[in-house]
Amino acid sequence: MLRSVILLANRMNVVMLRRRRQTITVLCTVTAFMLLLIYYYRGSYTSVNFHKESHSNVSHQPKSGAAQLLVNQKDMQIDSIQLKIQNHDYQLIQPKLSTPLNQELISQKPAFNQKFTRHSHIHPKQQLRMQDIASQKIQKEQLKKNSTTSDSQMLLRAKASELLVFRTKVKKMPKTFPSLMPLTNFTDTIVILTPVSNVEKKLSRYFNIIQNFTYPKHLISIALGEDTSSDKTFLTAKDLLTNLHGYRRKDLFHFSDRHVSGHDWETVHRYSNQKPRRAHMAQSRNHLLFSGLKDETWVLWIDSDITSAPADLIQQLLTARKNIVVPSCLYVNNKGEKRVYDKNTWRETKESQKYLKRKKDDFLMLEGYNGPSKRLFLLNLRNEGPLVRLNGVGGCVLLVKANIHRQGLIFPTFVFDHHIETEGLAKMATKMGHSIYGMPFVEVFH
Q: Under a CB-based contact definition with an 8 Å cutoff, are residues 428 and 313 in contact?
């Protein structure tokens, strides 16, 4: 009898377990079916709304939201469509400003896939990621085929990094930018310091740019420091300085550091030459700083090979009312497009900070030689307004309060916090408690 009861109980347990398994299987099947229905109808709803808006004839004003339409006001027809997915801060719409560069930046940004219907099972964000991975694979294959030595490999990597699409998450676009009140009464004296070397044919253009400045000439001093030139740079600079009139002071210095890094582009920009080359440039700047700065209030560093600058450059930089400020240094490529020239002007990101923390203290960080940049360049910060915070500066055009130089701020000839020369100066200024700012809408071309 007891044995029969035990067998009956075991059979009942087996039956109950089977029913539980069947119940769980049914629940899982129903749940999966419901999720598929939700995904299907959500894609269909987005597609229907998207096509309804695209076929409407009503003129819409651009605004930040789930979708944005750019309407041709002349023909009252849709000119182009850009879709911005909510909660994904990928910046596609630039600020509404009357500058041609904004339209260019919009064209440079990769647009989302416009065929976003219920049959598109790949999220637009995932499509962007796939495009990035594909471009990086192609460039890595080209580097492997063309690399012969370590220096040539670093040079090819620097060129390939310029081709990568720079994409990063940014803040939501502000409706209005804070205004900078222009200065009207100018009383501060300023000294323009320019290192020159083998720029005999470029000095005439440089002095034309200086003479076109509208800042009062009697408040401007000019000091040039010539070093390691194999042409007639010193004599040409001397003659051109003699023809300048009305300035507060004019000086020309000759330094003989005897450093030669080559004259062709490939030799000058070779990775193995960067540390001694940048150290020499820092030493030349320091010599010029110690010799050219007298009693002036401001120091304006300008490269001798810039091609153009606004006539009110000094006034715009002084309007920032900051101790260290730089404009945006750009160049125009063969297609007439503006590109970042001064890659030493940047802001750190979480990725770049993590990257540097893993390096040794004597590691020298050089933009363009360590793969795609993990930082934000000044041109990428235009959406934040006319004045933005930075962590690194270049020497294309750099305005510094003279008293900060007198307090000991120099261009490090050694690796200081993973950087050297102008970027090392920025790191040193930060250690001294000074903030660094950039003006992305003030453009100087190299």
A: no
Cβ atoms of 324 and 225 within 8 Å: the answer is no
* pLDDT band with cut points at 50, 70 and 90 for residue 29: confident
Instruction: Give, for 425, the enclosing helix (H) or strand (E).
Output: helix 421-431
| DSSP-derived pairing of the beta strands 220-227 and 249-255 | parallel
Query: Which of 65-79, 265-279, 301-315, 348-362 has the weakest average pLDDT?
Result: 65-79
Which helix (H) or strand (E) element contains residue 405?
A: helix 402-406
CA–CA distance from 205 to each of 38, 53, 123, 245, 443 (Å)? Answer: 65, 53, 51, 17, 17
**3-state class (DSSP) for residue 309:** coil
Which of 446, 188, 211 lies closest to 332 in space, CA to CA? 446
Helix (H) or strand (E) holding 108: helix 100-108
Per-residue pLDDT tens for 305-322?
Answer: 999 999 999 999 999 999
Side chain identity, residue 53: E
Average pLDDT value for the chain: 74
**Burial profile 303-341: b = 16 or more Cβ within 10 angstroms, e = fewer:** bbbbeebbebbbbbbbbbebbbbbbbbbeeeeeeebebb
Q: Which residue has the tokens 């750099």?
A: 398
| Residue carrying the six token digits 């041109």 | 379
Highest mean pLDDT among 61-75, 118-132, 389-403: 389-403
